[in-house]
Each structure stands twice: as structure tokens, then as C-alpha cells.
Description:
Serine Threonine Protein Phosphatase 5, Tetratricopeptide repeat, 56% helix, six-stranded parallel β-sheet, Rossmann fold, 7% strand, four-stranded parallel β-sheet, disordered C terminus, 624 residues
Amino acid sequence: MGIFGWQTASLLKKAWQLYQQQHWRRAQQLARQVIERSPQPEAYYLLGVIAEERGQPLGAQAAYEQAIALDPWHAAAHYRLAIVLHDLLSQPAAAVPHYQRALEVQPEWVEAHSNLGNAYLDLGEIERAIACYQKALSLNPDLPTTLYNLGLCLHSQGKLTEASACYEQSLYLKPGQADVHNNLGSVYLELKNYRAAIRQFQAALSANPELLAAHYNLGYALHLQGNLAAARDRYQEVLLRENKHPQALLQLGQICLSEADFTGAIRYYQRCLDLNPCNGSAQAGLATALLETGNPEAALHHFRQAVALDPNGADVRLNFALVLLMLGHFQEGWEEYEWRWQQPTGGLRTYAQPRWQGQSLAGKTLFVYSEQGLGDCIQFVRLLPLMARRAQRLIFAAYPPLVRLCQTLPGIEVISTEETPPPFDCHTPLLSLPRYLGIDKDHFPKFKPYFPLPAHPPHSIFNISKPRIGLVWASHSQTRTTAQRSCPLEYFLPLLREFEVQWYSLQKERSPAEAEQLQEVGVIDCQPYMGDFLDTALLIQQLDAVVTIDTAVAHLAGALGKPLWILLPFVADWRWLWQRSRSPWYPSAQLIRQPQRGDWQGAIAQLRTALQSHYRMLSNGIPN
């Protein structure tokens, strides 16, 4: 080395010493002196390092690029340039080739493998990121951050067991990482291990009380666990820190909805939508809350918005259908109602033969099968004789309790849903018939009682001269609306004493206490005589009228054309339409609705008035 070269090397060494002593300006001056004498890649590299330290990423980038121009295999310059591009300038794609060149020079550079994985992770190239992290860990297994990032990749692929192992090992090597605890909690949340998830979110908050994601996730885990009060408190904690947190607002709306606080639900959903009108869950939640407060038109608007945002959401499409049907928009409602089959509990039957979708049935055998509840089947079997006239043969699979009743329908071959059907050409679920028959408010099937019951001798319990009225007060079907539809028997008891009529209990299931109450007020219990629905129909045939809540008995009495009062909750099932006092499905039925949510006593008061009017007309000889 000549004197000139020796002086250059000495200046460069001195510049690095000044840099290490944090005398950055003097180090920078010496590095520039070196470059003026003889451009050296190491001098440019030092300028890049100093620029990084001084928060000058563009200056660092330029310096590293000069170093690489002079020495294309300068591994450190490639590595630092990649860091600047990725971490400081948010250009992961530009960083990748520089990490790769650094690794060509130093294939076992652990940090370069790990950071290349980070760049791929930010680019969404998960498989490549995983390969980089695994290579880094093969060289050094004790890298908590790399383990965490590998866990993130595996987590994103749904490999929950592998992801949790990475998170746990990261925490073993470096306890107290709030983000790692939070993500491990998220894994447990997906595994539905809510207790373990809650412990991890609490650990995250112990490590970092300001970690907003952990506050929200803890609330969500408590929510899913069913601890609504604690979940609500945690969501409120999120809003104290960030009052425009859309997910916390959404979940508070969901809690209010589940607790029937519909006013509160509307408030939270609306705040959520003010932040993001395209939140489909908030649109659907707001629609549900508006419906429950008696505003189905507004509910329809928001369900329509929710459907536009999530056109493949089976739940929202079905709820949209039910509101359409409730408001009498039958044509669109029947179309949307087909989304019931996309739900996990849909149960659409699959056969080699095609579904009937309105095509000609001339010379064909059509197989129709029951769906939904017993009341649904009673309501819609009225359409089977219409279909029987179109097909050469019609086979209907009825639920076992309905088989004998449905066998009274003319022209229908009835089997049980538990039987294998005989050969057929095409098939359809029962409640799809209205769609293809075009039933709407302008094309409604003309009603006449549609179960021609066999002759049957009068039962001895009906040998009473007073008017005879049947009563049903509770539903025992396993649906979410059962409790809303059932009216406590004690609300009826005063009414049962007020009229010169004989009451008959058509309640199939009742408690011993209820049986005792009925006996005390002289109600005759028909339960011992009620086997299947044909038995019940024959009993109803011998009554003068029926009073019932929304149950299968309501449909049966209506189908028989029996005078009928149906007590309905404030927001009733779609089939009773909205705020109607009469039903197009059952002309003999009078609909009595709760005047406000949960007000059965108000409904009973309306029933009392209706019965007084009805029986006053009877006593005056005026036909009913």
C-alpha cells in the first residue's frame, strides 16, 4: 500500500472510531475526505450508516447504492440498504433482492434470513416467509421475534397448533411480549378455548396495559364465553381509549340485541355505521333491532343494505326474506327464502333426480317433502292438491305426527319422512311451492277447509250444552322464538272463569302445576285423547272455537275453518304479516297482538273484548 492508500485507510479507520464515539458529524467529514481522495465503498457505507443514525433514510439509501456501485458484492451494504428500503421507506419488494444478494455472499447470515422473511411477510408471500424463518431458526433456534413471525405466518394459514407452538416458544425465550400473548390468545379463541384465550389476553395487558387489540380481544373472548357484563365493560374500556372503534361499537350492539335492549342496540349500530356505512354486520344488526322495535320498513331498508354488502351471507339473506314476507312482498320474499338451505342447519335433501323448479309435470311423479316445523307443514300442504292436478302422481313425506292427517288430502300419496320414498321423477321441499306457484297478494289460493276429516262419533267430553272453546297457551318447540310466543297460563286464568263457556285444554305438554290449575277452574284436559294430529283435528272439529298462541294448533284450527283467536307477540312470525288483524291464510282467524313488547296482559284484554263481542252475538242469534 502506498502512502496515499495508507492515509486513506487511516482516515477511514479514524472515521469509524468517531462514529462509534457518536461524533457523527466529524466521522461524516472524514468519510467524505476519503471519497474525495479515492472513492471507497466502505466510506460510502459509513455515510449510509451515519445517515440512518441521523434519521435520513434517503441519504442512507443513496450512500449504500454508491457503495454497491463500487462493490456489487458488499454484503453489509446490501443488507443495510434492504433494511432502509423495507423498514424506513416501506418498500419491501425493493428490499428483497438486496437481502438475497447479502445472503449469496454470507449464506448463514441469520438476521438476513429473518429480515428477508419479514419482507416476504409484508408482501403476503407467506410460503417464502416461512422458508426464510425456518432457515434462520435452523441456524439459531433461540430467536423469539423470528418464532413470533413464523407463528403469524402459520396462524394466517389456519395451522393453529403449529402457530401456538411458535408463540409459546417465543414467550419461553422472551417472557412478557404483549403482542405474542395477544396472538396466542387469538389462536385459543379460534380453537374455542375461551378460558385459555382470556388468560393470554390478560397476560398481554399485564405486559402492556395500553394494547388496544388485547382489550378488544379480551372483551370478545368474554362475550363468546357468555359473560356479557364483563364483555360489555371491556368494550367500554376500548371506547374510552378509542371512541371510534367500530368493532367495539358493533359488539356492544350485539350484546344489547341479545339482551333485548333494542334502543341501545340501535344507538351502537348507528354509531358503527357512522364510521363505516359498509359494515354489513352493523347493517344487519340495526335491521334486526329496528324490526324488534316495530319498524319493519326501516328494517327492510337496512337488510337490503346488508345483502348488498354480503350477498352470500345466508343468515342475512334469510332474515331479509322473512321481513319481505312479513310486509307482503311475496314474490321477492319467496325468492330470498330459498337462502334457508344455505344455512348450516338447512337440511336440503339431495337426490339424483332434479329439483322441481316450475317445469311441466305432465306424466311425472313429484316427490314433496316436509321441512321446517309442524305448523309450516299444516299451513302449506293446502298446495298439494294443486300440485297433484299437475302431476301424474304426487308423493308427500309428512312428519310422523302428521301422516294420518295428511292422508285425508285428496289425490296425495302420503308417506312418513322416516320412510324411503318410492321412485319419482323430480322433488321439491314443501315451502318452495309458493315460489313456483306464484303466490302473492294478488294471486292467493282461495281458502276452503282443506282436511276432509273422516266421520267420527262425538266424544263424551263434548256432551255439554255450553259453547266449547279449546285453549293452547304455550309452545314447546325448540326455536329461539318459543319463549316469546308462549303466554303464561296464569294470565288466562281470570278469563277462564268469566264466560259461560266450557274450556278445553289442547295443550299437549303441561306441567303438573298447570294441570292442577286447569282442574281448579274446570277446564277439561284433552291431553289423554291427543295422539297424533288427526286425533287433535277430530277434537277441534267438535269445538265451537279455539284460543291459542302461535303453535301448530293455530294452523290446524285455521285449516279446519274453525273460529279462532291467535295471540301473537309484538313482533310476530312473518306468516301473520304486519299489524294485520286478519290472516289471508286462515280467514276464520282473528289475530290479537301484544300492544307492546312482552305485554300479554294487554293481549288478554283484547281477547276478553273479542270474546264478549263474539258470544254476545251468539246469544242474540246473530250468525258468527
